[in-house]
Amino acid sequence: MRTDIVKLLPKPAERFCHDCSARLGDDNWYKSCRKQKQYWCKSCWNQLFYLRVKKHKYGLEREEFERFLRNIDGRCTICRQVMCEDWVCVDHDHKTKWVRGLLCRSCNSGLGFFADDPDRLRAAADYLEAAEELRILTAKRQEWYEGRK
Asked: What is the dihedral of CA 123, 128, 129, 131, to 10 degrees?
């Protein structure tokens, strides 16, 4: 056997991804699928699964989702942090199911924890601002107390 052909053959622990065309080792494939015929590596499978969920749940086609992401420069609409495509959340109104935008997981979870209620979110912001003022007063009190010793 010629050595140049041997170099091109995948190693026994490597497989060929049919989507990204990469030759990858066992750690790039899900354990449950290593012995079965799986045609996509972890990265490609996650992306395919993720986009299928977006289509089924929100009616977003891949092109539409990517256009949304381009329009916001790949940044969360609320905190403006750059988002990895795997962690982009589709924010939607739970009553009407209308898509409002794309958020990072933290901001999307935060809205969910406040039940998408603007009044509760404003009250939380007021609380945080008041707590900062209280921290400053408490620090001054601590300085005064330590000065008395």
From this structure: 120
